[in-house]
Amino acid sequence: MGKKRKHGEVGHPEEPKKEEVAPVRPKRTLLGWKDKGGVESKNDSSTFRNREKVLVTCSRRIVFRYRHLMLNMVSLLPHCKKDNKVESKESKGATLNELVELRSCSSCLFFECRKQKDFYLWMAKCPNGPSIKFLVKAVHTMEELKLTGNHLQGSRPILTFSSNFDKEPHWMLLKELLIQIFGIPKDHRKAKPYHDHVFVFSIVDDHIWFRNYQISVPHNVADKVEHGGLDKMTLIEVGPRFCLQTIKIFAGSFGGPTLYENPFFLSPNLIRSMEKRKKAGKYAKKIKAKTRRKIHELENQLEPDEFTDLWKE
Predict the structure, then answer these.
(1) Using CA atoms, how far apart are residues 170 and 157, in angstroms rounded to an integer?
(2) Residue 146 zone, left/alpha/beta (φ > 0; ψ -120 to 50; rest)
(3) Which segments of the chain does DSSP mark as H helices, in order?
């Protein structure tokens, strides 16, 4: 006897199976993935994407206070990279440009200490410039100030500038450089996606004063801040504090033609020599006063007293 056919096989001939083919993977580019039509899916090439990276380093034989200031800046800038110390010599510019290229950075903050007294800060865009040299004054670190503010590490700051930055060309160049270095990229992997502190740059007496404030918002249900309600927000200082005096602005990276030179800048060595001259002048005045007193006593001698030998007998 023959075998019975199955119920599903009646009147339905077998169809050939189709081969399963994986979909073609789109082409990957530096700015995202491309579709079949050649259009980028995530990021369009016309949109700007901030890829700023800052190299932070210092010179050898730096004082502990200035080293702590550098570490505070490293903690405030999640898009920076810290490197080993560099010898402070005339050839430091070539060394720093090479370090910036090796670490795939585009900017550099170089803290330079000389004679364990004078503190300088270099801000440079590598490798084509410009670069600015500052004298740092009134340094106060986070550990030293004991301020009550405390914002989240890695959050993006709001950069605020005083109206003086738009008056002269060199201040406008300085403002643009500060925005590029201290402005944290939006989609950086180490940065938080919101703002909870403010970087304040203000110009007073031709000096740039830096302050860092936490944005404090009440979290109670009764005092909850509505959208746009800035009256209830307060600022609490976090630190660090420092003051920058512009010395020179160069067209290249750590050198090149001088674009601007501060006419009111006096080097710390000159200030110390002037103070020594003042002290030397005080000593010379004392010596001249003593000699004048002796001459006056010799010219105007007192008459002999008749009672000087009264008690000798």
Answers:
(1) 24
(2) left
(3) 64-76, 92-102, 142-145, 169-182, 268-299
Instruction: Calculate the alpha carbon distances from 275 to 114, 268, 281 in Å.
Output: 19, 11, 10
Quick one: tokens of 107?
A: 């900017």
- Give me the half-sphere count of Cα atoms (radius 13 Å) on the Cβ side of residue 276: 6
For residue 286, give both structure tokens: 């004392």
Beta strands 234-237; 207-216: pairing state: antiparallel
CA proximity to 158, closest of 108, 229, 207, 215: 215
What is the C-alpha separation between 133 and 129, in angstroms, rounded? 12
- What does pTM read for this prediction? 0.75
Residues across the chain? 313
> And the tokens for 174?
């300085």
pLDDT per position as a tens digit, 258-274: 999 999 999 999 999 99
Identify whether the C-beta of residue 52 lies closer than 8 Å to the C-beta of residue 107.
yes
